[in-house]
Amino acid sequence: MIDFILTEKEFDKNNIPWNGNRFLIGNGYFGIRGTLEEYTKEYMCAVNMAGIYDRAGDAWRETVNAPNPLYTYIKVNGKKYALPENEPVSHIQMLDFENGIHSRKTVWKTENGEITIKCERFASMSRRHLIAMKYTFSSDFECDAEIITGIDGDVWDINGPHFVNMRTGYDDGVNYVTGVTGEKNISVTVRDTINADFNAAVESENTENGVYRHIFFKAETGKEYSIEKIAEVTTSEDDFKTQGDIADITYYGLKAEHTAEWSRIWDVSKITIDGDDEAMYALNYSIYHLNCIAPRELKGKSIAARGLSGQVYKGAVFWDTEMFMIDYYIHTEPQIAKTLLQYRIDTLNGARTKAEEYGLKGAYYAWESQDGGYEGCSDYNVTDVFTKRPMRTHFRDKQYHVSAAIVYGLMKYINATGDYDILNEGAMDMVVECARFYRSLLIKKADEPYYEIHDVVGPDEYHERVNNNAYTNRMAKFVFDTALELIEKYPSDEYDDLKIMLKDSSEKIFIRKPDENGIIEQFDSYFKLEDVRVDEVRSRLIDPKEYWGGAYGVAADTQVIKQADVVAMLSMFKDDYTSEIMEKNLKYYEPRTEHGSSLSACMYSLLSCYTNKPETAYPMFMKSAKADLIKGGKEWAGLVYIGGTHPAAAGGAWIVAVKGFAGITEEDGKLICKPNIPEKWQGMSFKLMYRNKLYAVRIDRENAAITEI
Length: 709
Hints:
By secondary structure, this protein is of the alpha+beta class.
């Protein structure tokens, strides 16, 4: 069995932002970027809080980063040693993603010899308010040493600072920093305690933004000196209590609880692939990230597009959650999936308000959803690299497909769990309001028998304000049909008139058919655009940070698209099309797709599986599974930084593995396995939750079996 350990064996300053993402640890309540202990805000270190939002001035609202309790560095004979200021003799950084533990070891050469720092830390999965760290120093010569450790409240912000009032201090051995946000007066408090395994003199230091301990000791040759820190993070918005007094909690006791909880999680979520260690490693690394950001025990919370890796994309919840992530939770921890849907139910009024803003009816869910369903996206969401002026985009007002994604996610959950009770908990109103929304979008030309949807942005964001986007129209029909099905199942007099409208809408909405070549045109007049390939369009860039879409982007007047659009539709409604049609569209659209979004590759991979081409599917599967392992992903949209982790790609990799290669489907309330694995794979094994039962799936080259546990 391979080790689930990510390792970097040398220090490269250029990798600091990337390592912050890929070495992330988290527990759903917060995510801790994989930066090193001595780093301050200029190196993008952050303890990013789930669902806590604030706005500084007129900048974009974003999630809040808590004061950093991990800040620690060493002085030897009065001289500070820290990366990146001091070049190391050797450096190794590791993430044990089977146990959710981050570690590092760094060696520096001094005037007198070598010193070594080792540090291990984790975001407690058993007690979600807690962070634990063990920091160890040693030297090969006698020296005067000083460990400086504390809570740094001068945090990294993309659009901050958010703390307008800071309180620092200490009380009975516990240090604390409390920051209060300017917009909503939310307080975020970090407390810590220290235990040392050696005799030392300790001095405290309070600053305007932080509180620190200076630990002085004489180090003997070859001896290790360790401090253990337990830190607690709380906010005034918390709806669950802390567990235990941090002064009474030991590092190793908490570590044992933490690893036991990770073991429980992995018992259900781990996927074994026989014959392909690289794929198994990458897939389970993706699953690790999904486990790190899951809102366990958090009411009314969802998952942001960049997880808990920072404030990128404003910490907002996108359609990614329902389309690409929820499948994993449905089949491993269904209660988490329900929590994600509850967030959408709770923010229904926000969606209604947005619909009203645009003169529409029903529920128009936010493109970038924050607390209360508030739309975090502005009309000017990209900065022009040449003029440095904000560019008008239409993500906010024309991405109509978001509401349908939420209904689609709901039905995936209901079909797999049988939990129709959620309809009585607000989900029925949500579906009906989404159906009203799509009804209000329909237009009809005087001499045509069908309804159309005009002026939209589909999943391919490079082409704005198009008519009859095939994906959007098909998703609207899905919402009409779902609402009708549920109204028939749960009849009510208040829905009588609505049933007539929904039936009319479903029957008459324009659904594009394949042309004479079997290709489904992405939107009206798409085939009239310049037919060039991705590399040609890329060659037209003057600045590598240019935005490709919008009114003036290099892709706007071409057939080059950002991500899966028609291909996504075919993957989602595969039973509507023949394998031949799906294959023809794959061949047509793939050379014209930039894959400028991490959401794209998994849809192409999945459709390749559905057309019985696992070898074609494999590279795109690996692209999704390794989205956070391979450097070089898109980190800029214009002048806006969009780096961070890619949980939608992680969820997409899981979908391809389980529903594509393993061929798991649901038929008549039962799980069916029709595997279609790549040639190099000898087999797969994993577990799935379905209808309140846990199943073991075992596949080899000749057989497939699903067994209830």
